[in-house]
Design brief:
Length: about 220
């Protein structure tokens, strides 16, 4: 007589073996094997912090558990299907909690990770650049001395000064916690513009007399 179950399993000992005992033992083993997957799907379906689409997919998979206790079809993470309509959800504003209060008063404060290019360091860099630009601006116009090194240094520091100012505007008016991907787009666009401006300074210093000569010609026009 051929084996009627799709997989072989251990037959319980010291019991009277019949069709009902084999069927119950097979169901117990299958249920225990997929218990972790079932609990994971149940957790995803009940988690209100997850997107509704993910919760619905988890609930559908949870209800599709067959008679053998296994999830029919795919696993916990469904395979991506081809969509002709683009997903615009990442371009929307991120919903903020009431009063911008995250967690509760009983939760410990989680300070952001230190960054050498933002925060207090960013403010310090701005002040250093602004102070360094003062003698560079005064030297050619007050002392009447023009050097290509001074002109190039002032042009580069002026670009970095503008970069820091626009970066502060992006941080204040396009915060990452609210606008998400738009913050990344604005930051990358600013970086690209800064690189193009640096190339413009290189062209200006190599093909003409630099920034001082341009300002002088405009002033005397």
């Amino acid at each position: 007589m051929p084996f009627r179950f799709p997989v072989k399993f251990e037959i319980p000992k010291h019991v009277y073996v019949n069709a009902r005992v084999l069927r119950d033992q097979f169901k117990r083993l299958q249920f225990a094997e997929h218990e972790v997957t079932r609990n994971a799907l149940r957790y995803i379906a009940r988690n209100e912090e997850l997107p509704s689409r993910v919760r619905v997919e988890a609930q559908l998979q949870l209800t599709s558990v067959g008679i053998r206790g296994s999830v029919s079809g795919i696993g916990i993470l469904p395979s991506r299907t081809l969509r002709l309509i683009p997903d615009w959800s990442k371009f929307k504003k991120i919903e903020q909690p009431p009063g911008y209060i995250v967690d509760t008063v009983n939760d410990a404060y989680k300070p952001p990770l230190p960054n050498s290019y933002e925060g207090a360091y960013h403010w310090t860099y701005e002040r250093i650049i602004a102070i360094t630009m003062i003698p560079l601006v005064m030297t050619p116009f007050v002392a009447g001395v023009e050097f290509p090194v001074i002109d190039a240094s002032l042009s580069a520091l002026l670009i970095f000064h503008c970069h820091s100012g626009f970066k502060s505007c992006i941080i204040d008016y396009i915060p990452k916690r609210v606008y998400g991907v738009w913050y990344e787009i604005a930051s990358k666009a600013l970086t690209f513009g800064t690189l193009v401006a640096m190339y413009g300074v290189y062209v200006m210093e190599t093909t003409s007399n630099g920034l001082f000569d341009i300002v002088k010609s405009i002033w005397s026009a």
